Records
---
Amino acid sequence: MSARVKVIGAGLAGCEAAWQLAKAGVETELYEMKPVKFSPAHKSGNFAELVCSNSLKADRIENACGLLKEEMRYFGSLMMMAADISRVPAGGALAVDRDIFSGFITDKIKSEPLITVKNEEVTKIDPGEYTVIATGPLTSDGLLSAISELTLDGGLYFFDAAAPVVTAKSIDKDKTFYAARYGKGTPDYINCPMTKDEYLAFYSELVNAECVKLHDFEGSEVFEGCMPVEVMAKRGEKTLTFGPLKPVGLINPKTGRDDAYAVVQLRQDNMDGTLYNLVGFQTNLKWSEQKRVFSMIPGLGDAEFVRYGVMHRNTYINSPKLLDKYYRLRKNGKIFFAGQITGVEGYVESASSGILAGYNAARLVLGKPMWEPDKKTCIGALPLYISDEYITKFQPMNANFGIIEGLDERIRKKADRYNKIASRALELVKKQTEERL
């Protein structure tokens, strides 16, 4: 039997890392503090709990996150297996039933003979052990202290927020309509159109609503990709109408017109279609204020909120200074990091880092060359970006075509250009993974 590897954290990244290790024949200990102890945002005892949203973003390869998901399939991604059996309607996006999704991953991990699950909080790191640290953006204070001691770096912090969820039956269908923006995909989103007067009244209450008082955390910097709706609104009266409430491309089939001043979209949150979340409505408003203000949205006057939005601290390390291109600690060749703690931002990106950290840890203990990331692929461009030592002001990074190597030829139409980049990436990943363990 090969050397044992410890994986800390059973979120998306940790589960993917443990899965890759086990499939390579490496005995793995997976440490998860739930249900002994919960973070401020987690509620379920299952692994790979989706907290912020049930969407895994775009499902087309001309979108970088869609490409990343296809690349992950070549690695036998556990997340993608779960997504395939828990998918719910979401137009051109891939959204899942949270409970089925996390339940599937939990069952797979617990039934894998080479993975031993230990439900306990880890507060110390042995620098002599092969370890993958995948504790996510809500790393406990005890482990965070150990990480700081290990890295001799204080880390960076920002705040993240989750959107509220309402019951489908409480949505007034007379005031809403089903449609997908620009007609892409099936019309799965429920759209709440607002007139200018309705929007301005809503806007006024939103920017003046009372927020939850934050704890005295370090560096309360809000990440642009997951900004609370009230913070975004305070940037200007029309900011939301060019952001999550933009009305363009949404034709109301009841009127045949697209003349709404603003549109709030609701996305299906579970497979049964009984729950919907407010797209782009991550928030730190007090729960009573959420009920009062969000009920002003047409169609949500009598909405039943089954989950209110919450805001919590996210933590990520200074990866350009600390990690190499293998997601490995530069100063300790046995310690890997994975997930949002590395500064990759998003469910899919987090899982992809877990795949590579687990795969590379397996290669290391088996005495084989680690996987070399290639900038022509999305799964390779992410670790190359976050480990770039020239980055001095590090911010979390989503999958995007800006970090993937472009083409030698000029293709004017963006969709065609991205499709060609994606096809090249998939061919390369296919070739690389055919030479796996």
---
Amino acid sequence: MDKFEKTNAQFEEAIGECRGLFEKKLHDYRASWRILRPSSLTDQLFIKAKRIRSLEIKKESLVGEGIRPEFVGLINYGIVGLIQLELGFADSVDIDNRQAMTLYDRYAHEALELMKRKNHDYDEAWRGMRVSSYTDLILTKIERIKEIENLSGETLVSEGIDANLMDIINYSVFALIKLNKEA
């Protein structure tokens, strides 16, 4: 197995873990996230990334959960963000669990395909990075999303909210892979 095949397999394994949790939460809550407006979803991503950074700096969690579940949350909320960009927000749950999983799988696949292209061009540079760098890059992407939202999407050169969400997903997957390796 070459290095790219290894990364692809690790990516799929990490997404599989996230997908399993997403599916269980759909069972419990249905697609309740459909009511989230863009700014609320961005703030949810922000909260998770800030908690990761706080734990990286403090080296201690007082609520007993580490940073791993927060990276899983970033992946799942990143995919929710892509779904919300496509469908818009709703006043009530308007899709069933099967539809939600179909959309989840489509965007997870798109994230994998983007990662493959970028990984080819960057030649596995992510493996030499620290997890804390992923956190900082994710926070930067969230700040960019906030600015795009504040500008009502009227940007001059931005790559767009969707591209930033894809990067958040991929950086979070890389973090999960590295954290699994260290565990």
---
Amino acid sequence: MKYSIAFRGLPFEPEKRQVIYVENLYDKRINAIIKEIYEQLKWTFKRANLDFIYLPMFFNDEETKEKILYYAPYLTTEIIEKAELRSSYLLGYMSHQENREKITPSLIFSPKKDDEEWIFQGQTVDFDRDGRGLAIQWFEDAAAEIEEEISKEESDTIRFDIPLSNEDDGVPYRSDDDWDGEDSKVEYSSTTGFGDKDVKRYIKHSKKCVEDEEGFTGTTHESAPSSLDEILDEDVRETLEELEKKIERLRLFGIPLDVIVAFVARYETISRLRITDDLTIFLPDYNNIEIKMPALYKAVYLLFIYHRKDGIVLQQLEKYHSDLVYFYRKTKNIEQLTPRQLESINKLESSWDNDGSIYVVLSRIKKLFKNSIDEHLAKHYYIEGRPGQPYNIALSHDLIIWGDEDE
């Protein structure tokens, strides 16, 4: 049976091609089959350009783990795998809770925004519950049918005219059954301590990964000065475009963002920043992530770390020439800089009023941190400031460690 279902107050932005398994009451046989063929189901829907979401295994999905560890690098795989979520979770947001008991095992998909509500299409799961082969075939047919429906919607060649329920309660539903029942509340595992959270402050949907500093309208990474490119280390193997794709892939989208945030918030911590004796940069409390940088970027970053107490006004960067040369030389592990390297540093120090190279460097340092951890954590580590004012790093001084041993 097909139907429509309305939700209000969803704490995430649903995606059209997500297909979500929902049920009001736990169906042991259907869930057992889904768990048995879960990977095959993921692949079946993926071939149809759809994303199959089965909430009880959401946290055990490898792609989800990767995203969570990017968002919350202080977690371990063992902690993530303890999280549990029931397929009834989303039904707590139904616009008409009196209809909830009518939701048998179903797939919901193709959400449309209607004022303050999201209207999903629903498809009742209907196959021989004891037949693995029949289940696979049913899901394959369902995936093909759903993909066809969504594609038609996207091409504006079809519209759905779904009658209202007999009670005319405002919830579109194709059914001859009467809708009644008692209100019920969302159910999910008590082992997680999940709760409703507003995640907008955590999740950034911007696709622009190199931001111009406020007040600066000059060069961006797409037109970086040649002097800067000439002194990049050979070990920089990922282009900025590749970094941008990785960051976009690891961002948290879809469902259930509020659950992820509520779960990880219990463990959230700001990692120490360690600069080892050989000037390698680590985040020891984030699974010891190493932040790799080209030599010039690292020299600039270490300069701001070293002078973080008062910060550095970019227009006065030349005052720190000897320190910048020192960090660059130590990072490159050389005794003396070549005339070309010195010339490039000299240009960088005065670039705030010239080609803007220093802004490019600061922007790229920001991206290198965001390549490893989500921005809501990365913001503690990169360099920011306002024109004419000291640029600095937000991280507390007591979280910065110089050397291989704790102080």
